[in-house]
Amino acid sequence: MEALIASAIAVLVACGFYLVLRARTFPVIVGLALFSYAANLYIFSTGRLTSGMPPVLQKGVPLEAYADPLPQALILTAIVIGFAMTAFILVLAISGYVELGTDHLDGKEQTR
């Protein structure tokens, strides 16, 4: 299970890095979102990957039978903040496109 999660994180980081290096704003925004998803997945994987284990402690049950609730709470918060920031950056990119007439990061069209 850990190898699958590590592979998914590596793919997300590689795709995000590729998209961040593009010259247009929308791929850069998607690349930053992929970086955010990779970071969320990494934090989630630090909380003991268990299947069907509750994050709430009960009397008489050993601690190995529980999932760590802190990474789960951090990921929930990070998802909400990441979604809000992505929406805000998209609005900024759209307003920049309307004002400048191009979606290139430097504001100029590339000549071939």
TrEMBL record:
Q: Which organism is it from?
A: Lujinxingia vulgaris
Q: What is this protein called?
A: Na+/H+ antiporter subunit C
Q: How does it sit in the membrane?
A: Multi-pass membrane protein
Q: Which residues cross the membrane?
A: 26-44, 73-98
Protein family membership? Belongs to the CPA3 antiporters (TC 2.A.63) subunit C family.
Give an example GO cellular component term for this record. Answer: plasma membrane
In terms of superkingdom, the source organism counts as Bacteria
Pfam families associated with the record = Oxidored_q2
Swiss-Prot/TrEMBL keywords: Cell membrane, Membrane, Transmembrane, Transmembrane helix
